[in-house]
Write a structure and sequence with these properties.
Blueprint: H1 3-20, H2 23-26, H3 28-38, H4 42-66, H5 79-90, E1 97-104, H6 107-114, H7 116-133, E2 139-144, E3 147-151, H8 160-175, E4 178-180, E5 183-185, E6 189-196, H9 203-220, E7 225-227, H10 246-252, E8 255-264, E9 270-281, E10 285-287, H11 289-298, H12 302-322, E11 329-334, H13 336-340, H14 344-354, E12 362-367, H15 368-373, H16 377-389, E13 392-398, H17 405-411, E14 415-418, H18 420-423, H19 430-446, E15 449-452, H20 458-466, E16 471-473, H21 483-495
Parallel strand pairs: 6-7, 9-11, 11-12, 12-13, 13-14, 14-15, 15-16
Antiparallel strand pairs: 1-3, 1-6, 2-3, 4-5, 8-9, 8-16, 9-10
């Protein structure tokens, strides 16, 4: 079949299928059958009843011929395949389409926890699930490293509402439980999407726009969806040599913390904030750590980043104190290189004294992956010195790195933070609930606190509270925010409480 004939067939079937399978058109078929029956035209009754399945079959056959899931010459479609399909659709008069780019959240943690081979197997299982959720004629591309692309079979209008619904369906497909050995795993994904409309952006800009929207979704947090806004400046991941800009960004304060609140699960009282790095880039806008941490590491500035984050966080505590919120804590992350430094504990003590902050109000978070793999005594010595000062030690992303109970005791951990992969769906998944219950039981027996990360629904909150989880953190409580916004957030939260007036909470100190 010639290329021109294939394109003509695709155009004809796309327009016919879109026109005949609209909701208002489908609603006419029962009426036509009833009219044919009442007028005694038996042949018309049969013909009308057969018309709908025939049209559906023709549309599916035409879609398969015009746009097979794996076009000839491509064993597995990739980004180039997506671009080629967008080009073909752009040449069809009167037809639109939409492009989606999806990324599995926290893929690095997935690789660390389960190994690269298992992560690749999970990637393939997600690909098969996504493929099964699409229509014949839609294109699924494998972009590698936990990323996938989708181009829709031509549609008459690629409205925003339709695209948002499809993106939500893709996220739901990824979130279905996966069995890994004896464990049940729930993944989440972030999605960016863009429309290719007649008279609008070209095919290349549509694909790049979807990728740019994905970066915004990743910045917004796990399981987020973002649409590309035409006319917005687009950037491709990895275009800029960020490593060369890290030193200046740290010096100028362009990299600074945003703060995500933590609350008591029972009372709802705000107990603290976690400091999370954000880069206010002059060209690329606001960047999350997933976008620039590799650049910081490449520049050899991880310890400098930790120092900047800690000093900003302590300054934030001083600010909250001046507004009357003097009973909350702040937690900052420490990388393995910082903890191996023989002067790290001394630097922390100096910073606490400079800002006149009690050591008990600072928590140092250690990734469980660091605790699980650390073999040298320098980290143990540093954490021991911090505990001696009164600084709290927290084990972050608990459940990811498979740290032993001995390591928890060895490091003197005060609180474990249950990784969000265990929290997702804890209200509905019996196995998930059992795992979290086991973690909470262990924490109680060892006399340490537990905080659940990634709490996003009321059902998750209620379940975790009923199970005895002491503290909660997640989008349901509050998203990461700049320091100035935390003051407004605290004031509005206090205003909604019934145990006292709002002015008592954030009254400037005299």
């Amino acid at each position: 079949m010639s290329r021109e004939l294939r394109q003509g067939l695709a155009h004809w079937h796309a327009r016919l299928g879109t026109a005949l399978l609209r909701t208002e058109v489908l609603a006419l078929f029962p009426i036509l059958i009833l009219l044919a029956y009442q007028t005694g035209r038996e042949g018309a009754v049969i013909a009308t009843a057969m018309a709908l399945p025939t049209l559906l079959a023709l549309r599916n056959i035409g879609g398969a011929m015009a746009h097979p899931m794996y076009p000839s010459g491509d064993r597995r479609p990739n980004r180039d395949t997506m671009a080629a399909m967008l080009d073909r659709i752009a040449a069809m008069a009167g037809m639109d389409t939409a492009c989606f780019v999806l990324a599995l959240d926290d893929r690095e943690a997935l690789v660390t926890r389960w190994g690269r081979d298992t992560a690749l197997a999970l990637h393939d299982r997600c690909r098969l699930r996504l493929e099964g959720s699409l229509r014949r004629g839609d294109l699924l591309a494998d972009l590698g490293e936990g990323r996938f692309g989708v181009v829709l079979h031509p549609v008459e209008v690629a409205r925003l509402g339709i695209r948002e619904g499809i993106a939500a369906r893709l996220c739901a497909v990824v979130a279905e439980p996966l069995i890994v050995g004896d464990a049940t795993l729930r993944l989440t994904a972030s999605v960016g999407h863009a429309a290719l409309r007649q008279g609008g952006a070209d095919a290349a800009s549509t694909l790049t726009g979807a990728e740019s929207a994905l970066e915004e979704a990743i910045l917004a947090g796990p399981n987020s969806i973002r649409a590309h806004v035409p006319g917005r400046a687009l950037t491709r991941p990895g275009e800029d040599p960020l490593a060369e800009e890290v030193a200046e960004a740290l010096t100028s304060g362009a990299i600074r913390p945003w703060f995500q609140p933590q609350v008591d699960a029972v009372t709802g009282r705000v107990t603290g904030f976690e400091a999370l790095a954000r880069w206010h880039h002059p060209r690329l806008g606001l960047l999350g750590p997933a976008r620039f941490l590799d650049a910081v590491a490449e520049a050899g500035r991880m310890e400098a980043l930790g120092l900047a984050m800690r000093r900003h966080a302590l300054a934030a505590l001083a600010t909250w104190d001046r507004h009357g919120a003097d009973d909350i804590t702040v937690s900052v992350n420490a990388c393995a290189d910082e903890l191996r430094s023989p002067t790290y504990a001394e630097q922390v003590a100096w910073d606490l004294d400079t800002h006149d902050i009690a050591p008990s109000r600072l928590a140092i978070e250690v990734l469980e992956t660091v605790a699980a793999t650390a073999r040298d005594d320098s980290i143990v010595a540093t954490l021991g010195a911090l505990r001696g000062q009164g600084v709290a030690i927290e084990l972050d992303d608990f459940g990811v790195g498979q740290a032993s109970l001995l390591a928890i005791r060895r490091y003197g951990v005060r609180r474990i933070k249950i990784d969000r992969s265990f929290v997702i769906g804890v209200d509905a998944d019996g196995e998930q609930k059992a795992m979290v219950g086991a973690i909470l039981s262990m924490a109680r027996e060892m006399g340490i606190e537990a905080l659940a990360e990634g709490v996003e629904t009321e059902e998750e909150r209620a379940t975790l509270t009923a199970m005895g989880c002491a503290a909660l953190q997640g989008f349901l409580i509050g998203k990461p925010m700049p320091l100035a916004e935390t003051l407004r957030w605290l004031a509005s939260r206090e205003a909604g409480r019934s145990d006292g007036p709002a002015e008592r909470a954030l009254r400037p100190a005299q």
